[in-house]
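Quick start: what a row looks like.
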Amino acid sequence: MTDPLIRLLYGILSDSRMNIMTFAVSKGGVGKSLITANVGAALAKKGKKVILIEGDPNHPLQLMLNIELPHDNIMLDEVVKRDLKTEEAVHKTSLKNLFLIPSGVSLAGYFDLDPLRFARKIRALEADFLFIDTPFPLGKAALLSLGVSEYFVPILTEDEFVLCVESAIDTIRLGRYYLKCMPIGFILNRIKTASKFTKDFVEDLENLLEIPCIAKIQENQNLSKSYGGTTSLKAFLAYAQGQEPEFCKNMDDVATFLLGELPKTEKKDVVRFLRELVHK
């Protein structure tokens, strides 16, 4: 049998499909990229193929994954500009099953390039999970990431908590009703005062947002200071280094949640949906 036929039969006989997700934020510094990298690592440890898409022009995922790219490296924006195969921009990491696609432009920049080709290139990938690292501020970046993604997870922090909640409500409405991207749960990150986030408080928050709390993560100065630092390690993928067991357990809990039964997505054809969205 030919290779295309084999791939077609494999797709029909297996129940697996690629889940495209993003972690949504209301402000910078909430730990979005750190969570993206480490949840990806946790899923990779469980045997799932995970591809991370770098949408932040500051390249935080490259720092955390300790990836140094050659000068002639092909990035995702070149794939979109020159209509290359997406696989040419996929890079291995130090962890088995975890891959990175770097980008030479911010996520919002793909609106100026070709958002529809961006969507097609993303959909052409083969993986169990694909995470899009969406930079702050959101704007067009949020429209594209939520427009392409099937699911998203808002991240809230204790700092500026009211702003986080208000933004989460707006993003959930935008994603669920306009962009057909399903919110599946939220993460409370960088909690400094655990006594404030009681069981009853979190349940009230779940009722307000109408999604479950996936994880409550305490503030950890070792993690906060390590990200983007200039130490000899240069990068800090906590899950790989195993230096923060509580944080790793949090990431494992999120990964386990994502491996559970997710709601059916209304987005049957992402490229067609995005085309209709762009031309409205």
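That is the whole record. The chain has one domain: 16-278. The first strand starts at residue 19 and ends at 24.
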